[in-house]
Design brief:
With 378 residues, the protein is α/β, with parallel strands linked by helices. It contains 12 helices and 7 strands. Helix 7 crosses helix 11. The chain is globular, with a radius of gyration of 21 Å.
């Protein structure tokens, strides 16, 4: 399975598309907005560039795609007015995602958003800006050396470059039998394999972005993680176990082959904050400016802060739709498209049942990093 072929979200604007079911990411972007705005302000005030280059890694398709563009225009425009700049900088935005992302639809939306920017901000307050696509994996070089002022990424870095190695025994038998991620029955070597793959991928990501950033450039990213080093039964780990449970029930009834399930492992890892900071410190390329841990309800339409689920049936449906928009392509690649409706119907029931017992929340890590000047000089 080639990961870059199955990770793009469900395209289009249909009921199961990511464009229709991306409110979870929207909430994460809104909740981390102040950190993003502060980073952009610091870059502008430090460099006062004539041309400011910003990149959104993993832009996907839908209403969230142009949120960074809107935020940056606001921040830079306000600073220019406060400073009395006669000539505001030109902003260059690169929207990056895997080549199979629906970039055509992204740019079909662009004219609508440009008109909306003018209507909301007034044409006289609109900073000159240009938006282009940059297809490719962020586990590879994407831009020339020292060309980018600011990188942004939302809900992407939990996806690994590949399924970890070491999930099979010497005779080829699956070591993570019955699980699709690190589950309660996974042996310790499975967690170790996942952690090593995360460390390798995240270190590579930091090295690549450091080469592309201007000296002193910044990056803000959010990723689904976990609260504690050994907490593997809450949050997203609980959700993946509910997906595995739905697949198990389909195996028992002959809808899915057992071998297909036993060989299926997600290229995904939810790190704790300590694991993320450890890799950052080991690479020695970035200083951590700010960090924050958010808790976001698995039902993206539940905006309450308490632990009470008011309608577990509806919340189960909402949570399932968000998951389907994200994992449908990778599930279809492994098991075939014919099982999709049945699988996600069962997952909806599993989520509703679990939500009747407790509210599930995704732990979200937010970090702002600043490239080290001394490291750039080496």
């Amino acid at each position: 399975m080639k990961v870059d072929r199955v990770l793009p979200m469900v395209s289009g604007t249909g009921e199961t598309s990511y464009a229709t079911n991306s409110r979870l990411q929207e909430k994460a972007i809104i909740m981390s907005k102040s950190i993003v705005e502060l980073a952009i302000s610091e870059i502008f005030m430090t460099h006062l560039p004539e041309r400011m280059v910003m990149v959104d890694l993993g832009c996907s398709t839908g209403p969230n795609t142009f949120l960074l563009v809107s935020e940056a225009i606001d921040v830079v425009g306000d600073l220019c007015r406060k400073l009395g700049c006669q000539q505001p900088p030109e902003l260059q935005f690169f929207l990056n995602d895997l080549p199979k992302n629906d970039f055509n639809r992204v740019f079909q939306y662009l004219e609508f958003y440009e008109d909306k920017f003018k209507e909301d901000k007034g044409e006289e307050k609109l900073v000159p800006h240009y938006v282009v696509a940059s297809p490719g994996s962020f586990y590879s070089r994407l831009f020339p050396r020292h060309s980018v002022h600011f990188f942004h990424s939302s809900y992407c870095l939990m996806w690994l470059s590949k399924v970890p190695e070491g999930l099979e025994g010497k005779n080829g038998s699956p070591l993570n039998e019955g699980n699709i991620y690190v589950g309660s029955t996974s042996p310790p070597c499975v967690l170790d394999s996942y952690k090593k793959q995360f460390q390798k991928d995240f270190a590579l990501f930091l090295q690549l972005r450091f080469k592309e950033l201007v000296p002193g450039g910044q990056m803000v990213f959010t990723t689904i993680g976990r609260k504690e080093l050994h907490l593997l039964k809450k949050g997203v780990a609980c959700v993946w176990e509910l997906v595995a449970e739905a697949l198990h029930s389909m195996v028992s009834q002959g809808f899915v082959e057992k071998g297909n399930l036993d060989s299926f492992n997600l290229p995904f890892y939810a790190p704790c904050m300590e694991e993320v900071k450890e890799v950052i410190q080991q690479t020695g390329l970035f200083d951590i400016s700010r960090s924050q841990i958010l808790e976001i309800n698995v039902d993206p339409h539940d905006d309450s802060d308490d632990d009470f689920v008011r309608d577990n049936i509806q919340s189960g449906k909402n949570a399932m739709k968000t998951l389907r928009a994200v994992i449908e392509p990778i599930v279809a690649c492994q098991f075939g498209e014919e099982i999709l409706d049945e699988l996600f119907s069962r997952l909806e029931n599993n989520l509703a049942r679990q939500l009747s017992k407790e509210k599930i929340k995704y732990t979200t890590l937010v970090l702002a990093l600043k490239g080290k000047i001394c490291a750039a000089a080496k």
